[in-house]
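Notebook entry, structure prediction.
Reason for the run: the old model in the group folder had no record of what sequence produced it. Starting over properly, with the input documented here first.
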Amino acid sequence: MGTQDTDDTKSFDDLKGPTAHASSFDERTEEQKAIDAWLPITGSRNAKWWYAAFHNVTAMVGAGVLSLPYAMSNLGWGPGVVILILSWIITLYTLWQMVEMHEIIPGKRFDRYHELGQEAFGEKLGLYIVVPQQLICEVGVDIVYMVTGGVSIRKIHKTLCEDCKEIKTTYFIMIFASVHFVLSHLPNFNSISGVSLAAAVMSLTYSTIAWTASVNKGMQDNVEYGYKGKTPSETTFNFLSALGDVAFAYAGHNVVLEIQATIPSTPEKPSKGPMWKGVVVAYVVVALCYFPVAFLGYYMFGNQVADNILISLHKPKWLIAAANLFVVIHVIGSYQIYAMPVFDMMETLLVKKMKFKPTWILRFWTRNIYVAFTMFVAITFPFFGGLLGFFGGLAFAPTTYFLPCIMWLAICKPKRFSLSWCTNWICIFLGLCLMILSPIGGLYNIIKQAKDYKFYS
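New structure, fully documented this time:
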């Protein structure tokens, strides 16, 4: 079990596969090994630490960064600064826990989030707890990114051609989706490394443009920092929705084990070393993107800032068009990062449970159907701000803020009232508050926006 070769071919026998006995890995047939080599997550294990860095940047710094000044306008200076910085610290801690737990049992790798859940909660319960939440996160992100991509392409068109005829957002979402009907057929995580690297660079670029253009535009006349809700209930709902925006911004945990699965590992050099190095670099980039955009964007525009900071910026035209183009390139990469674990789940189910043959035809149909589904939902419900708040609280808070802590307590069993035990329970309490409160605000905003919305307009 200790050699590179055997370590690199480990995988679970099926979606509900064994979680307790390492010997079961030795019993796999050549056919099972070939299937594991075909699946997106276990197909390639030759990634370097810098792959982990830009995959994590791409997964985390997404459309959420552009909504942070708007979130600040609903949170206010004091709570906003505290919540953003505290979220950065908590999510870095829970990400460290997941990196450590990837190979916490000798001779075994938890390549997927649900496999770790099965180890912590039991074979069936682990699936029921983790898989629905992970799917809500990953499919939810892809739907929101469909909307973001389409809206950003529309913004480019409108900025560069003010006199052109108005075109429905629906068509721009379809243009964005057309790219994914091609890219989705890249076989595994390592094959999308180039796309992910470009996306990571773009995220840092458009974040820098967002805050530098805000500073260049200067503080607006009669800027106000008070809550813009006209009633206490509206202010409260906006505050709760903003919590979801923040949760959405720190949503990279859903793919972290899958990213780590692509890194080679031996007993002498476990994968957690290079993975943690990549995570630290990624989190430095996250801080460089999030904090200047959130704080300077809010400082310059106050409570009149749009739910996408780039919409508040109108000049210079070429710069705003370029920033939106960078957003489009970034969300193309982010979409693929979040889609890959979904493809892995679908293909595992079809090939290992339903006994379909692992062929390119199967992959062609499953992936095209998935892209078409996310496109259809995005066209039907393009509520950018409300979607962030609702999805952010409902599913991202558990998988990011406190599910890793519960797994740590279940698997590592730290001593009661020790520093580790106390820290995890504090994170669980804060994460539960976030999960319960923020979807309320997000749903309120969706209902409010839906009142005046005409389908497919």
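Summary: The first helix runs from residue 4 to 8.
The old model has been moved to the deprecated folder.
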